[in-house]
């Protein structure tokens, strides 16, 4: 039963690798937005794994 519960949780928990975008028009470009962890409020580092819940809440995975 616990195994089925874990499968249900993982179905709603997606992960991805964060890649830092190098701004085309310089550092002060409006396209240069950093992503921040919703739990620890730290910026994500390049190639760091980020988890996303079904409600679009993002965090370090």
Automatic annotation (TrEMBL):
It comes from the Eukaryota. Gene3D superfamilies: Zinc/RING finger domain, C3HC4 (zinc finger) (3.30.40.10). InterPro entries: Znf_RING/FYVE/PHD. This is Uncharacterized protein.
